[in-house]
Structures are given as structure tokens and as C-alpha cells.
Design goal:
The protein has 258 residues and is mostly helical. The protein has a three-stranded antiparallel sheet, with no helix packed on it. Strands 4-5 form a two-stranded antiparallel sheet.
Length: 258
Amino acid sequence: MEAFTLALTRLPALKPALRTWSTSFMRWQLRGDRKLRRRVWPDYAFGCKRILFSSAYLPALRRNDVELVTDPIARLSATGVVTSDGIERPADTIIYGTGFRADEFVAPLAVHGEQGVELQQTWREGAEAHLGISVAGFPNLFMLYGPNTNLGVGSIIVMVEAQAGYVVDALRALGRAGGGSMSVRPEVQASSSAALQERLGNSVWTQCESWYRKDGDGRVVGNWPGLMLEYQRATRSVDPSEYHFESPEPSKPSAVRI
């Protein structure tokens, strides 16, 4: 499945073929129902939004007890939902598919770093972290599933396991340094983030509005532009030269024990 990543990031010549393959499958599953096909037909490049691998989704929309409504919701009434065309549809239960804040990561937690700086304020132009794990100015902060570690296709478990191993190695490095604190150097984070964004700039994820991007249409803050194997190699071990270490204060012995 991860082979799709190459088409989405490095081999754009493959994208037309993938779109033809996917839309042909959609045409086959929606044959005989042009009205539904118009409503579900994608108006963006293949892979720009989350790819749904399912043989059951489209047939479910064709069931007699299912109606796909794409008109905006105007208001909720005492008995159901009223859309912009004025039609009221009775409803016993309403499930909201909103509230996703994928580009804020640790939200709603308020994380403060050096000089009391708040993490979300640091990320006001878009979240970034070295390898999606460490943030300059925030000593001893290590994240799992942080900025740019999501996948368009692939297993997040692989990414999180790689991150967990990296954090353990970081704690070992901190212990060897005598405890205290460690934080990624600003120039290291800036360099890795710039290289990441350069690669992402050529990806399909910049071609539509989605939750992969800051505020939906800003820079890509969600996805990793490479293969899972590449990320595993990058996080295999901590390079101490990329971090600034500080010894613990004499009156406050380090609690780090490896």
C-alpha cells in the first residue's frame, strides 16, 4: 500500500493513472445512479485528501434507507435538520463530524517552554518539530505522532513505534550527560523543517484544502513526505550534536534514571 506514497510525493506521472483506476472503480459501483455519482465525485487530485480503501462505502450510500444530502445545514429544528433548500428532515440522533483540530496537535493542553513561551503561540504559523518529536525551546518535551508524522497511506503504528524508540534513546543520552535537560538546537529544527517543506511542496497534499494543512489551506503540517522505512532510519538513534544539554541544578538532582 505504501507504494502509493511515491505517486503522491515523488512520481507525479503516476497520478493520472491512479485517478483513472479509482474513478473507474467508482463508476462501476455507482452504475445506474448518476445523481449520486455527481454528489460523491471528487473535484480534487487523487490522494490530496484521505484515501478511502473500501468496497462497502459507496454501496452503502445506495441503500433504500440511506439518503446522501450535500446541501448545507441552515439550522436545527426541534425535530430534525433543516438544509439551505428549506427541506426539514426528521432526526432522532445527530452525530457531529466536526471539531477536528488535527493541525494543533497537543491541543487542548497548554505546554510552556523556556521563558514561559506557550507552544501553540510558537506554532501560530504552523506546527513544526524536529522529526515530529522535539521542539526548540521546549526542553525535555518529546511527542509521539507530532507534526509531519501522519501518513497519506501506511501504518501510524510503525511511525509511533519508531518515535517511542527515539525517545528512549534520547533519555539514555540525557542520562549519560548527567541528567538535567535536553532540547533540540534551533538551527537543527529549522534545517530539517525547511527540507521537509521543500519536499512537501511537490506533493499532492498542497493541491486542495484538507486537515493535512495549517487551517486547511496553509502549509502541510500533518504528513510525512517519505516512506515509513525512511522515517525509521531517521529516528533509529539520537544524534547528541543536534541537542543542547544542561546539567541539573545542584539543589535539584535529576530524576532521570536509565
